[in-house]
Amino acid sequence: MSVADKSQKKSGGLLEIVSVIVQALILAVIIRSFLFQPFSIPSGSMRPTLLEGDYLFVNKWAYGYSRHSFPFSPNLFEGRIWADEPQRGDIAVFKFPPDPSLDYIKRVIGLPGDRVQMRDGALYINDQPVKREKVGQIDNPDITEMSRPVDVWRETLPNGVSYDTLDITPNGISDTTREFTVPPGHYFMMGDNRDNSNDSRMSVGFVPFENFVGKASVIFFSVSGGASPLEIWRWPSDLRTGRLFTPLH
């Protein structure tokens, strides 16, 4: 084999590798944009449902697509296409309205036109109290971030969706709010950790439908103690096996 033949073969092999990498990247972007996108939970605002160190898949087609469905939020079109509206109780990822470079995850509480208010720790929608019952206490700092037992309340929304909330600070500053009227095309979002969540009661405000990224569907991995999924040597002590492949609803 001549030097020229060897050079041509080497060049062809390099081009093939580059082609495979480019195709893999394109496929990854398509999956991330249209099907599923992985997210990690950075804060405790959705405790006890979601914990820091949870890794989950977000369903990208659940609400249709907006420019925020794609990397870097290109200004391709306005509004949403093939849209299905969020429902009360959905756990959704959305772009923070004051700074769309940030992703937030909260629960859908108020729909367009709803009136939402907190009164002494109880949630009211359209002047009707949401069913709420105390189900016990949690004495686990990995779940509550507290060194003392924390009350757990189960809420059941008008559409029948139930979930647990934490009451870390009874009679806290966010337990009683003004009444919020959700404008058309917007949603009222709240964290399950009611006393430790920046949500629509605070600086998040009403979330435009266009800002929705997708619906949280399943926890596929979970580690405690600030461990990284790549730190395999920490899995024996920090892997939360009971949370793996937990569906979210």
What does this structure look like?
With 249 residues, the protein is α+β, with helices and mostly antiparallel strands. The chain has 2 domains: 34 residues; 211 residues, Umud Fragment, subunit A (Ribbon), CATH 2.10.109. It contains 3 helices and 15 strands. Strand 5 and strand 6 form a beta hairpin. It is globular. The mean pLDDT is 90.
List keywords for this structure.
249 residues; alpha+beta; Umud Fragment, subunit A; 2 domains; 8-stranded antiparallel beta sheet; 4-stranded antiparallel beta sheet; 15 strands; 16% helix
CATH topology of the largest domain: Umud Fragment, subunit A
Structural class of the helix and strand makeup? alpha+beta
Largest sheet data = 8 strands, antiparallel
| Helical coverage, percent range | 10-25%
CATH top level label of the largest domain: Mainly Beta
Number of helices: 3
Task: Tell me the total number of β-strands.
Answer: 15
Nearest-integer average pLDDT:
90
Radius of gyration: 22 Å
Supply the number of structural domains: 2
Ranges with pLDDT <50 over ≥5 residues?
A: none
Order of helices and strands: HEEEEEEEEHEEEEEEHE
Shape: globular
Proportion of β residues? 25-35%
